[in-house]
Design goal:
D-Maltodextrin-Binding Protein, domain 2; Double Stranded RNA Binding Domain; 5-stranded mixed beta sheet
């Protein structure tokens, strides 16, 4: 008889939705094992006093879960793939990229006005360095404000009037049945999504044949190709630092198309790149690396160097 598969997850509403989705997909397979969820608190859950983009390090919402995996306390780690570092812990394997929902950013305004029609001086909440940069580039007349908390809490803060508008991931809102609050979904050329946004990533111990037997079947071919290209790009650019960068790959017919942009936090400079490749994982990774080189050659390196310096000093407004 198969052993019970222990799924490690954060305890937020969205994380639990994702973990339960993976559990249901496992249970749907013939002969599937019993599945149980193990709740794990991460640094990102505990560090609510400061913006995470202002803190050195990465994998704030994932490293404790992956370490529990290595300690044999769980068998599968379920993550929002956008939170997962592009450099995995030794012995951890990204065994499945589950179905990807709408990767776009969503704009929610209290009054129902669009992003373009938001009045000057409006307070827009976001916890993302990337979104702050795009906001500054597109609407330097509005005020970006820090926004923390789980997805339902962020929506409540908007409704209470703490912000005039907020920006969240479309996929998270849809998964929690909160997409009715979306005013508009933002164009990917303006607000290029975070790498792997909308995708669920499942990790297991390298060589764990029993866990992998059930998880491999959950790997979605398109989602794997898209996120492979995006993560390869980010890995080459970031060097262990959060970067105001967006990247989105999409399967279009027999090609994979990748678009990416890097933007200065003050909105003053922006560089973009785009390219295509054949539909295989090796080509996807090579495309991501090639477009990373293109961004760096266009000036992304100097933008990133400035942002690293900014993070060491006073957090920008």
């Amino acid at each position: 008889m198969s052993r019970t598969l222990r799924i490690g997850t954060r305890a937020s509403a969205l994380a639990l939705w994702q973990a339960n989705r993976v559990a249901d997909l496992i249970r749907a397979q013939p002969g599937a094992p019993a599945v149980e969820l193990v709740h794990i608190k991460t640094e990102g859950d505990m560090r609510t006093d400061v913006p995470l983009w202002a803190v050195d390090g990465r994998a704030f919402f994932t490293k404790e879960i992956d370490r529990a995996l290595l300690a044999n306390e769980i068998d599968v780690a379920v993550h929002s793939l956008k939170d997962l570092s592009t450099v995995l812990e030794n012995g951890v394997e990204l065994v499945a990229v589950v179905e990807r929902q709408d990767p776009r950013d969503a704009f929610l305004s209290r009054s129902g006005v669009s992003f373009a029609d938001l009045p000057a001086g409006s307070r827009v909440g976001t916890s993302s360095l990337r979104r702050r940069a795009f906001l500054a580039h597109l609407r330097p007349d509005i005020q970006a404000m820090e926004l923390r908390g789980n997805v339902p809490t962020r929506v409540e803060k908007l409704q209470k009037g703490e912000y005039d508008a907020i920006i969240l991931a479309s996929a998270g809102l849809a998964r929690l049945g909160l997409d009715k609050h979306i005013t508009e979904r933002l164009a990917v050329t303006n607000f290029t999504p975070a790498v792997s946004q909308g995708a669920i990533g499942c990790c297991s111990r390298a060589g764990d044949a029993e866990a992998n037997r059930w998880m491999k079947a959950l790997d979605n071919a398109s989602a794997r190709l898209e996120t492979t290209a995006e993560r390869a790009l980010l890995r080459k650019i970031e060097g262990g630092c959060q970067v105001p960068l967006g990247a989105l790959a999409r399967v279009e017919g027999d090609k994979l198309r990748l678009y990416s942009q890097v933007c200065a936090l003050d909105g003053s400079r922006q560089v973009t790149t785009e390219g295509t490749c054949a539909l295989n994982v090796t080509e996807a990774a090579a495309l991501g690396q090639r477009l990373a080189d293109d961004l760096l050659s266009k000036g992304a390196a100097s933008i990133i160097a400035i942002e690293r310096g900014t993070k060491k000093g006073v957090a920008p407004a």
